[in-house]
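Predict structure. Chain length: 171.
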Amino acid sequence: MRPYKACDAHAIVQWCKDEYAFRQWSADRYARYPISAEDMQAYYERDRDSDRVWAMTAFDDTGVVGHFTMRYPHADDRSEIRLGFVIVDDRKRGMGYGSKLLELAKRYAFEFLRVEKITLGVFENNAAAMRCYCANGFTPAERSERESYECLGERWNCIEMECRREGNTQK
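Prediction complete.
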């Protein structure tokens, strides 16, 4: 795993083969589908100088295989990190890459950033992602208000999930 580089976008934008999968990955964050590597880079450029948001890339000997973003969701609180744009090369799904990606993200967040919890949102209609998150220590979390998005003419609800530092079971 390493920090995202602009050249990674060329691979990442190819992993969503249809708009449905693309919206499961990005919700309404991009105005159109498909996006280009330049579109992805322009989206990330706006946070280039922020110390609260960054992107990471996973790779193996074949090249770029996974990607996610991390951000501190609260300006004055560094105890929580939020994952976003979590994706694995569609040709590598079902081969353990998602689990390895989450393992690396968790290790980075807990050991390097020293956060107490990691959160993320996953659409109810994304059963494969939900299974992967649950298998890797994420559990549904209470949220005062349910997050939802207008995608492809439908209202898609998010399930809030979290993973806490081992030994920290406080809710």
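Summary: The mean pLDDT is 95.
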